[in-house]
Design brief:
- The protein is α/β, with parallel strands linked by helices.
- Helix content is 38%, strand content 24%.
- The chain is flat.
Length: 343
Protein backbone atom coordinates (compact mmCIF):
# COMPACT_ATOMS: atom_id res chain seq x y z
CA UNK A 1 0.00 0.00 0.00
CA UNK A 2 1.41 3.39 -1.02
CA UNK A 3 1.82 6.20 1.55
CA UNK A 4 -1.11 8.03 -0.07
CA UNK A 5 -3.35 4.95 0.20
CA UNK A 6 -2.15 4.38 3.76
CA UNK A 7 -3.17 7.91 4.74
CA UNK A 8 -6.52 7.49 2.99
CA UNK A 9 -7.47 4.16 4.56
CA UNK A 10 -5.89 4.66 7.98
CA UNK A 11 -8.62 5.15 10.58
CA UNK A 12 -8.53 8.55 12.17
CA UNK A 13 -7.75 8.33 15.88
CA UNK A 14 -10.69 9.46 18.00
CA UNK A 15 -10.08 12.34 20.36
CA UNK A 16 -9.64 11.52 24.02
CA UNK A 17 -12.87 12.39 25.83
CA UNK A 18 -12.60 15.17 28.40
CA UNK A 19 -14.16 14.25 31.73
CA UNK A 20 -14.92 16.05 34.96
CA UNK A 21 -12.28 15.60 37.67
CA UNK A 22 -13.12 13.51 40.76
CA UNK A 23 -11.68 15.33 43.80
CA UNK A 24 -12.77 12.77 46.38
CA UNK A 25 -9.64 12.80 48.55
CA UNK A 26 -9.70 16.60 48.77
CA UNK A 27 -13.38 16.77 49.75
CA UNK A 28 -13.00 13.92 52.27
CA UNK A 29 -10.21 15.79 54.02
CA UNK A 30 -12.40 18.90 54.37
CA UNK A 31 -15.39 16.90 55.63
CA UNK A 32 -13.15 15.27 58.25
CA UNK A 33 -12.05 18.72 59.42
CA UNK A 34 -15.68 19.87 59.65
CA UNK A 35 -16.63 16.81 61.72
CA UNK A 36 -13.71 17.45 64.04
CA UNK A 37 -14.70 21.13 64.35
CA UNK A 38 -18.34 20.35 65.21
CA UNK A 39 -17.82 16.99 66.89
CA UNK A 40 -20.73 15.57 64.89
CA UNK A 41 -21.64 13.91 61.59
CA UNK A 42 -21.42 16.06 58.45
CA UNK A 43 -23.03 15.54 55.07
CA UNK A 44 -22.79 17.58 51.87
CA UNK A 45 -25.92 18.22 49.84
CA UNK A 46 -24.58 20.18 46.86
CA UNK A 47 -26.70 20.84 43.76
CA UNK A 48 -25.32 22.85 40.84
CA UNK A 49 -27.16 25.78 39.27
CA UNK A 50 -28.00 23.66 36.22
CA UNK A 51 -30.20 21.18 38.07
CA UNK A 52 -32.61 20.96 41.02
CA UNK A 53 -33.40 19.12 44.26
CA UNK A 54 -35.22 15.94 43.21
CA UNK A 55 -36.82 12.80 44.64
CA UNK A 56 -33.77 10.70 43.65
CA UNK A 57 -31.82 12.47 46.38
CA UNK A 58 -33.81 10.79 49.16
CA UNK A 59 -32.54 7.35 48.14
CA UNK A 60 -28.99 8.73 47.94
CA UNK A 61 -29.22 10.36 51.38
CA UNK A 62 -30.54 7.13 52.89
CA UNK A 63 -27.75 5.11 51.27
CA UNK A 64 -25.11 7.49 52.63
CA UNK A 65 -26.47 7.75 56.17
CA UNK A 66 -27.61 4.18 56.79
CA UNK A 67 -25.12 2.46 59.09
CA UNK A 68 -22.93 5.56 59.36
CA UNK A 69 -24.62 7.43 62.23
CA UNK A 70 -21.81 8.12 64.70
CA UNK A 71 -23.33 10.93 66.81
CA UNK A 72 -26.65 12.49 67.82
CA UNK A 73 -26.08 15.63 65.76
CA UNK A 74 -26.07 15.99 61.95
CA UNK A 75 -24.54 19.02 60.22
CA UNK A 76 -25.72 19.55 56.62
CA UNK A 77 -23.78 21.64 54.10
CA UNK A 78 -26.68 22.78 51.92
CA UNK A 79 -26.21 24.54 48.58
CA UNK A 80 -28.94 24.67 45.94
CA UNK A 81 -31.14 27.04 43.96
CA UNK A 82 -34.22 24.93 44.76
CA UNK A 83 -36.37 22.20 43.30
CA UNK A 84 -38.98 19.90 44.85
CA UNK A 85 -40.46 21.00 48.18
CA UNK A 86 -41.85 17.49 48.59
CA UNK A 87 -38.27 16.20 48.57
CA UNK A 88 -37.37 18.73 51.28
CA UNK A 89 -40.08 17.35 53.58
CA UNK A 90 -38.97 13.76 52.96
CA UNK A 91 -35.32 14.68 53.59
CA UNK A 92 -36.10 16.34 56.93
CA UNK A 93 -38.19 13.34 57.95
CA UNK A 94 -35.22 11.06 57.18
CA UNK A 95 -32.75 13.25 59.09
CA UNK A 96 -35.06 13.43 62.09
CA UNK A 97 -35.50 9.65 62.13
CA UNK A 98 -31.72 9.20 62.42
CA UNK A 99 -30.59 12.19 64.51
CA UNK A 100 -31.76 14.02 67.63
CA UNK A 101 -30.40 17.37 66.41
CA UNK A 102 -30.00 18.82 62.93
CA UNK A 103 -28.06 21.94 61.92
CA UNK A 104 -27.91 23.34 58.39
CA UNK A 105 -24.71 25.13 57.34
CA UNK A 106 -25.36 27.87 54.77
CA UNK A 107 -22.21 29.50 53.37
CA UNK A 108 -23.84 30.32 50.00
CA UNK A 109 -27.28 30.13 48.35
CA UNK A 110 -29.90 27.96 50.02
CA UNK A 111 -32.87 28.94 47.91
CA UNK A 112 -36.52 28.01 47.44
CA UNK A 113 -36.93 24.26 48.17
CA UNK A 114 -33.50 24.32 49.85
CA UNK A 115 -34.88 27.02 52.18
CA UNK A 116 -37.79 24.69 52.93
CA UNK A 117 -35.35 21.95 53.91
CA UNK A 118 -33.41 24.37 56.12
CA UNK A 119 -36.63 25.24 57.99
CA UNK A 120 -36.57 21.76 59.51
CA UNK A 121 -33.24 22.29 61.28
CA UNK A 122 -32.87 23.11 64.98
CA UNK A 123 -30.26 25.68 64.03
CA UNK A 124 -29.35 27.58 60.85
CA UNK A 125 -25.75 28.77 60.62
CA UNK A 126 -25.58 31.38 57.86
CA UNK A 127 -22.31 32.78 56.54
CA UNK A 128 -21.62 36.32 55.21
CA UNK A 129 -22.30 35.08 51.65
CA UNK A 130 -25.15 32.78 52.64
CA UNK A 131 -28.87 33.40 52.28
CA UNK A 132 -32.31 31.83 52.20
CA UNK A 133 -35.09 32.97 49.85
CA UNK A 134 -38.86 33.21 49.58
CA UNK A 135 -40.73 29.95 48.99
CA UNK A 136 -43.57 31.23 46.80
CA UNK A 137 -44.33 28.92 43.91
CA UNK A 138 -44.29 29.03 40.11
CA UNK A 139 -46.73 26.77 38.29
CA UNK A 140 -46.61 25.47 34.73
CA UNK A 141 -50.00 24.29 33.51
CA UNK A 142 -51.10 22.82 30.18
CA UNK A 143 -53.86 25.43 29.98
CA UNK A 144 -51.58 28.26 31.09
CA UNK A 145 -50.44 31.19 28.91
CA UNK A 146 -47.65 30.87 26.33
CA UNK A 147 -44.60 33.09 25.88
CA UNK A 148 -43.39 34.76 22.68
CA UNK A 149 -41.88 31.46 21.51
CA UNK A 150 -45.21 29.67 22.08
CA UNK A 151 -43.87 27.77 25.10
CA UNK A 152 -45.97 27.38 28.25
CA UNK A 153 -44.84 30.00 30.74
CA UNK A 154 -44.87 29.83 34.53
CA UNK A 155 -47.58 31.53 36.59
CA UNK A 156 -46.56 32.97 39.94
CA UNK A 157 -49.19 33.16 42.70
CA UNK A 158 -47.83 36.41 44.12
CA UNK A 159 -47.87 38.10 40.70
CA UNK A 160 -51.45 36.95 40.16
CA UNK A 161 -52.55 38.25 43.56
CA UNK A 162 -50.84 41.60 42.94
CA UNK A 163 -52.58 41.96 39.58
CA UNK A 164 -55.97 41.39 41.23
CA UNK A 165 -55.18 43.86 44.05
CA UNK A 166 -54.10 46.55 41.57
CA UNK A 167 -57.27 45.99 39.57
CA UNK A 168 -59.47 46.27 42.65
CA UNK A 169 -57.64 49.39 43.83
CA UNK A 170 -57.97 51.23 40.52
CA UNK A 171 -61.13 49.89 38.88
CA UNK A 172 -64.20 51.90 38.01
CA UNK A 173 -67.79 50.66 38.38
CA UNK A 174 -67.98 49.61 34.74
CA UNK A 175 -64.80 47.50 34.96
CA UNK A 176 -66.34 44.59 36.84
CA UNK A 177 -64.50 41.68 38.47
CA UNK A 178 -60.76 41.26 37.86
CA UNK A 179 -61.00 37.53 37.26
CA UNK A 180 -63.51 37.94 34.46
CA UNK A 181 -60.79 39.83 32.60
CA UNK A 182 -57.96 37.49 33.62
CA UNK A 183 -59.86 34.48 32.30
CA UNK A 184 -59.35 35.85 28.79
CA UNK A 185 -55.60 35.27 29.19
CA UNK A 186 -55.29 32.56 31.85
CA UNK A 187 -57.60 29.55 31.96
CA UNK A 188 -59.62 29.20 35.22
CA UNK A 189 -58.15 25.73 35.82
CA UNK A 190 -54.63 27.19 35.55
CA UNK A 191 -55.52 29.83 38.16
CA UNK A 192 -56.91 27.07 40.37
CA UNK A 193 -53.66 25.13 39.98
CA UNK A 194 -51.67 28.20 41.07
CA UNK A 195 -53.80 28.58 44.21
CA UNK A 196 -53.39 24.87 44.96
CA UNK A 197 -49.60 25.12 44.58
CA UNK A 198 -49.57 28.10 46.94
CA UNK A 199 -51.49 26.11 49.56
CA UNK A 200 -49.05 23.23 49.15
CA UNK A 201 -46.07 25.54 49.68
CA UNK A 202 -47.49 26.86 52.98
CA UNK A 203 -48.48 23.35 54.08
CA UNK A 204 -45.02 21.92 53.37
CA UNK A 205 -43.19 24.71 55.19
CA UNK A 206 -45.52 24.51 58.19
CA UNK A 207 -45.12 20.74 58.39
CA UNK A 208 -41.33 20.96 58.13
CA UNK A 209 -41.17 23.61 60.87
CA UNK A 210 -43.38 21.45 63.11
CA UNK A 211 -40.50 18.99 63.56
CA UNK A 212 -39.00 21.42 66.07
CA UNK A 213 -41.53 24.27 66.50
CA UNK A 214 -44.08 23.48 69.21
CA UNK A 215 -46.10 26.65 68.48
CA UNK A 216 -48.19 25.73 65.42
CA UNK A 217 -49.45 29.30 64.95
CA UNK A 218 -45.88 30.63 64.84
CA UNK A 219 -44.85 27.96 62.34
CA UNK A 220 -47.75 28.87 60.06
CA UNK A 221 -47.02 32.60 60.40
CA UNK A 222 -43.40 32.06 59.31
CA UNK A 223 -44.53 29.87 56.42
CA UNK A 224 -47.01 32.48 55.17
CA UNK A 225 -44.40 35.22 55.59
CA UNK A 226 -41.90 33.33 53.43
CA UNK A 227 -44.60 32.54 50.90
CA UNK A 228 -46.10 36.00 50.36
CA UNK A 229 -44.15 38.86 51.97
CA UNK A 230 -41.24 39.19 49.53
CA UNK A 231 -41.50 41.04 46.20
CA UNK A 232 -39.11 38.66 44.45
CA UNK A 233 -38.71 34.88 44.65
CA UNK A 234 -34.93 35.25 44.86
CA UNK A 235 -34.94 37.93 47.57
CA UNK A 236 -31.86 37.13 49.72
CA UNK A 237 -32.84 36.46 53.33
CA UNK A 238 -29.63 36.99 55.27
CA UNK A 239 -28.92 35.83 58.80
CA UNK A 240 -30.25 39.10 60.26
CA UNK A 241 -33.50 38.89 58.30
CA UNK A 242 -33.93 35.20 59.20
CA UNK A 243 -33.67 36.10 62.89
CA UNK A 244 -36.24 38.89 62.47
CA UNK A 245 -38.89 36.54 61.08
CA UNK A 246 -38.38 34.09 63.96
CA UNK A 247 -36.04 31.46 62.55
CA UNK A 248 -33.32 29.94 64.81
CA UNK A 249 -30.49 31.49 62.80
CA UNK A 250 -27.00 32.51 63.87
CA UNK A 251 -23.73 33.49 62.22
CA UNK A 252 -21.65 30.69 60.74
CA UNK A 253 -18.26 30.39 62.43
CA UNK A 254 -15.42 31.84 60.32
CA UNK A 255 -13.35 28.67 60.43
CA UNK A 256 -16.31 26.59 59.28
CA UNK A 257 -17.24 29.17 56.64
CA UNK A 258 -13.74 29.01 55.13
CA UNK A 259 -13.79 25.20 55.06
CA UNK A 260 -17.22 25.14 53.41
CA UNK A 261 -16.18 27.66 50.76
CA UNK A 262 -13.12 25.54 50.07
CA UNK A 263 -15.36 22.47 49.75
CA UNK A 264 -17.63 24.41 47.39
CA UNK A 265 -14.57 25.25 45.25
CA UNK A 266 -13.76 21.53 44.93
CA UNK A 267 -17.34 20.68 43.98
CA UNK A 268 -17.48 23.58 41.50
CA UNK A 269 -14.34 22.29 39.83
CA UNK A 270 -15.89 18.83 39.61
CA UNK A 271 -19.07 20.33 38.14
CA UNK A 272 -17.32 22.24 35.36
CA UNK A 273 -18.68 21.22 31.96
CA UNK A 274 -16.20 19.14 29.92
CA UNK A 275 -16.86 19.19 26.16
CA UNK A 276 -14.95 17.30 23.50
CA UNK A 277 -15.56 18.64 20.00
CA UNK A 278 -15.31 16.05 17.21
CA UNK A 279 -16.70 18.27 14.46
CA UNK A 280 -19.10 21.15 13.94
CA UNK A 281 -22.04 18.72 14.22
CA UNK A 282 -20.82 16.31 16.90
CA UNK A 283 -19.40 16.64 20.42
CA UNK A 284 -19.17 14.72 23.69
CA UNK A 285 -20.70 16.25 26.83
CA UNK A 286 -19.62 15.44 30.40
CA UNK A 287 -20.82 17.19 33.55
CA UNK A 288 -21.33 16.44 37.24
CA UNK A 289 -24.53 18.12 38.45
CA UNK A 290 -25.20 16.85 41.99
CA UNK A 291 -22.80 15.81 44.76
CA UNK A 292 -23.87 14.21 48.06
CA UNK A 293 -21.09 13.14 50.39
CA UNK A 294 -20.40 11.87 53.89
CA UNK A 295 -17.22 10.71 55.58
CA UNK A 296 -16.34 7.53 53.66
CA UNK A 297 -18.37 7.90 50.47
CA UNK A 298 -19.24 10.39 47.78
CA UNK A 299 -22.15 9.96 45.34
CA UNK A 300 -22.59 12.17 42.30
CA UNK A 301 -24.72 12.34 39.16
CA UNK A 302 -22.77 12.56 35.92
CA UNK A 303 -24.12 13.49 32.51
CA UNK A 304 -22.15 11.57 29.89
CA UNK A 305 -23.30 11.43 26.25
CA UNK A 306 -22.70 12.58 22.68
CA UNK A 307 -24.61 15.35 20.94
CA UNK A 308 -25.10 15.14 17.18
CA UNK A 309 -26.84 17.63 14.95
CA UNK A 310 -29.53 16.26 12.67
CA UNK A 311 -29.54 18.31 9.48
CA UNK A 312 -32.83 16.74 8.39
CA UNK A 313 -34.65 17.59 11.64
CA UNK A 314 -32.53 20.68 12.40
CA UNK A 315 -32.14 19.70 16.05
CA UNK A 316 -29.40 18.43 18.37
CA UNK A 317 -29.98 14.86 19.59
CA UNK A 318 -28.17 12.86 22.27
CA UNK A 319 -26.57 9.44 21.59
CA UNK A 320 -24.56 6.85 23.54
CA UNK A 321 -25.98 8.14 26.83
CA UNK A 322 -24.06 6.73 29.79
CA UNK A 323 -25.35 9.25 32.34
CA UNK A 324 -26.11 8.10 35.87
CA UNK A 325 -25.24 8.00 39.56
CA UNK A 326 -21.75 6.97 40.64
CA UNK A 327 -20.26 6.16 44.03
CA UNK A 328 -16.69 6.87 45.11
CA UNK A 329 -15.00 5.07 48.00
CA UNK A 330 -11.48 4.21 49.11
CA UNK A 331 -10.83 0.47 49.03
CA UNK A 332 -7.42 -1.00 49.91
CA UNK A 333 -5.89 2.45 49.61
CA UNK A 334 -7.25 3.02 46.10
CA UNK A 335 -10.10 5.18 44.86
CA UNK A 336 -12.91 3.02 43.48
CA UNK A 337 -15.70 4.46 41.31
CA UNK A 338 -18.80 2.29 40.79
CA UNK A 339 -22.08 2.83 39.00
CA UNK A 340 -25.18 2.73 41.20
CA UNK A 341 -28.80 2.56 40.07
CA UNK A 342 -31.61 4.64 41.57
CA UNK A 343 -35.22 4.15 40.57
Amino acid sequence: MSPIQDRFFKKKKKKEVKRSPILFEDSQEIISKLEKFYNGDCISYWVSQRTIISQDHINILYRLLKGRVRSDHLYIFMKSNGGSGLTSLRAIHLFRELYKKVTVLIPLECASAATMLALGADRLKIGPLGFLTAIDTFTWHELGPNDVDDHTTAINHDELERAVKLWDANKEKKDGNAYSKLYKYIHPLAIGAVDRANSLSVKLATEILSYHFKDEAKAKAISEHLNSRYPDHGYPITCREAQKIGLPAEALEWESNDLLLELNDRYSEMAKVAKTDYSTVKFHYNEITEILEINGEQIFYQKDFEYRYSKELRVWKSFEDDSGWKSVKMEDGEQQINRIFIN
